[in-house]
Amino acid sequence: MNRIKEVLEEKGIKQVWLADKLGKSFNTVNGYVQNRKQPSLEMLYEIAKILGVDAKELLNDK
């Protein structure tokens, strides 16, 4: 499980913007945000870099 949705909401960033920055489709990013699929470790670090957070902040510890 990840916290991408919460971080996006905290920062006021839309999924469409993140998808554009990652060069991924909206459906792919939406899958990450809704926890239907998990990003690879490399992708998680890329998302963290784009959002300006530590990768650990994107992970649930549950």
Automatic annotation (TrEMBL):
Which superkingdom is the protein from? Bacteria
GO terms (molecular function) for this protein are: DNA binding
Matches recorded under InterPro entries:
Cro/C1-type_HTH, Lambda_DNA-bd_dom_sf
Q: Where is the HTH cro/C1-type domain?
A: 4-58
**Listed name of the protein:** Helix-turn-helix protein
